Amino acid sequence: MEQRVVLADVGDDRRQGRHDVKKKTHGNMRLMHPLVGELTLRYETLALPGDQEQSLSTYHAEPGSPSAEALRLLAGWGADAARQRSASSSAR
Fold first, then answer.
1. Cβ distance 29 to 40 under 8 Å?
2. Tell me: the pLDDT tens digits for 12-26?
3. DSSP-derived secondary structure letter, 9
4. Which of 25, 42, 46, 89 is the most exposed place for a label (fewest CB within 10 A)?
5. Which of 56, 63, 62 has the alpha carbon at shortest distance from 30?
6. pLDDT tens digit string along 35-79?
7. What is the pTM of this model?
8. In this structure, are residues 31 and 49 in contact, taking their beta carbons and an 8 Å threshold?
9. Can you spell out the DSSP letters for 13-75?
């Protein structure tokens, strides 16, 4: 069976195959981390001059929030793991 999608007056730009899409450069993002649970982070994406295919994104939690505490906990775990790897490799 043939199916067709019919669009009512989508404007000249779409008929010509043109459509401008703006990237969202900032906002809030909710993530579910397997160890610390839900994180709500603010993000900002910055374009890199001279290379439109690359960008730099930063994420941070609101100071004093449960997400900020969860990030502190994760950072501590990461630091502990790095110390353990360093100690085990220097013992060899």
1. yes
2. 555 556 655 567 789
3. -
4. 89
5. 62
6. 999 999 999 999 888 888 899 999 999 999 999 999 999 999 877
7. 0.59
8. no
9. HHHTT----PPP-EEEEEEEETTTEEEEEEEEEEEETTEEEEEEEEEEPPTTSHHHHHHHHHH
Single-letter code of the amino acid located at 46: L
Place of tokens 């579910």: 32
The pair of structure tokens assigned to 16 is 């010509």
Lookup: tokens for 83: 């110390």
C-alpha count within 13 angstroms, C-beta hemisphere, residue 74:
14
Domain chopping of the chain, boundaries: 24-91
Q: Which residues pair with 25 in a beta bridge?
A: none
